[in-house]
Structures are given as structure tokens and as C-alpha cells.
Write a structure and sequence with these properties.
This protein is an alpha+beta fold. Helices cover 39% and strands 20% of the residues. Strand 3 and strand 4 form a beta hairpin.
């Protein structure tokens, strides 16, 4: 942050004022995000060190295929797959977070959603995902991965097999909210018609949703 705040040297006064406001606002968000991560890391550390996973909640989508896309991370949830607001992220209290891993398994692949304790925010988010059909679910997972995480890795062969429209859509999704002035779109996770994968859903398992 001190380095960023120094980058307005030599600019006009009005430009410096705008730049300082932008960077300081960004700094507030970084600080809140760090506090959230520390809060949730403490919970997961306690769970791991004690060996007590009774508070662990999960929703796992089994895939027949090894996914051409893989990633792992955590994020605070703001909107669900229908565009409904789940929580405001500008509050001082720690925001509910969910972890997500898209991985290969011995039998194909899996999309693993995990959270700690009974979080209504996480449950409602997963509920909106679980309402999707088996044919729609893989594409929703792809949207979520590229929309939410920076460490997404994928097969070059898969990428080369996509048509121009699919590539543009994925690039646009991966670059979403890179600029600090960009507005949040509540409906980002809704179906955009892009069908970039042909994964087959084999199972849905959860210790929270009775219908999964």
C-alpha cells in the first residue's frame, strides 16, 4: 500500500486526489479481505489440528470425466446463481466464505464445495446451484471457476478445441472485475449459453442438503 500510494508523483493535483481516493478505498477492501481470511483460517486450523471435522459442510459433484479445468481457492459469497444477494461484503464482520476445488479423482473428477459450520449464506448459494439439471450443472461450475478464481489451470488441447465465441466468453469472464471501477453484476453466474465442456455428472453428495 505505501508503494501504491507513491505512484501519483508528478501528476496534477486533481489527478493525485482521485488516485489517492481510489488506492485508499482499495486498501480498505484489502484489509477487510485479509481479516476475513485470518478469521476463517483460524477456524480451519482448529479443525485440522483437533481432528474434529463435525463442523465441516460439503457439497461434492462427481464427474465421469477428468476435468480439463482445475483450480482451488476460497472466496466470500455475494450473489447466488440466480443473482440473489446473499450478503453485503462492506460490513466489518467476517463474511461467509466457501472453498472450492475442481480436481481429478481415481474415477474421473469432482467439484468440491466446502465450508465450516451452519452458514445460511453458503447453504443458500449451494441450494441455487443444486437446482440446476445434470446437463446444466457442469457449465455453471465452469462459470463459477473462471468468474471467481485467478489460479485456474486448463488443458491447452481443450482450449484449442473451443470456437472463437467460447474463447471470448471465457476470457471476458476471467478478466471480470480486474478494473476497480468496474460495477458488480449480480447475474454473472446465470447461464450465458456457453457450453465449453462435455462433463457428465455422476453424483451429488452433501451432508447439508437433504435433496443432494
Amino acid at each position: 500500500m505505501p508503494f501504491l500510494l507513491s505512484l501519483d508523483r508528478g501528476k496534477e493535483m486533481i489527478e493525485q486526489a482521485e488516485f489517492q481516493h481510489l488506492v485508499q478505498t482499495y486498501g480498505v477492501g484489502v484489509s477487510m479481505g485479509l481479516n476475513d481470511l485470518q478469521h476463517h483460517k483460524t477456524i480451519y486450523d482448529k479443525m485440522l489440528l483437533s481432528g474434529d471435522y463435525s463442523e465441516a459442510r460439503y457439497y461434492v459433484v462427481g464427474l465421469q470425466n477428468v476435468p480439463e479445468i482445475m483450480c482451488s481457492g476460497s472466496m466470500p459469497l455475494e450473489y447466488d446463481f440466480d443473482g440473489r444477494l446473499l450478503q453485503a461484503l462492506d460490513k466489518p464482520a467476517a463474511a461467509a466464505q466457501i472453498t472450492f476445488s475442481l480436481i481429478a479423482t481415481d474415477t474421473g473428477g469432482a467439484a468440491v464445495f466446502h465450508w465450516a459450520s451452519n452458514s445460511n449464506v453458503c447453504v443458500e448459494f449451494i441450494r441455487s446451484l443444486n437446482t440446476l439439471s445434470d446437463t446444466s450443472l457442469p457449465h455453471a461450475i465452469v462459470r463459477f471457476a473462471f468468474d471467481s478464481f485467478e489460479n485456474v489451470f486448463f488443458s491447452p488441447h481443450w482450449w484449442d478445441s473451443l470456437d472463437h465465441k467460447e474463447k471470448i466468453a471465457i476470457q471476458e469472464r476471467a478478466g471480470y472485475i480486474v478494473g476497480p471501477e468496474q460495477d458488480i453484476n449480480p447475474y454473472r453466474l446465470r447461464d450465458d449459453g456457453i457450453r465449453a465442456v462435455s462433463w457428465i455428472v455422476t453424483s451429488r453428495k452433501s451432508n447439508t442438503l437433504t435433496e443432494a
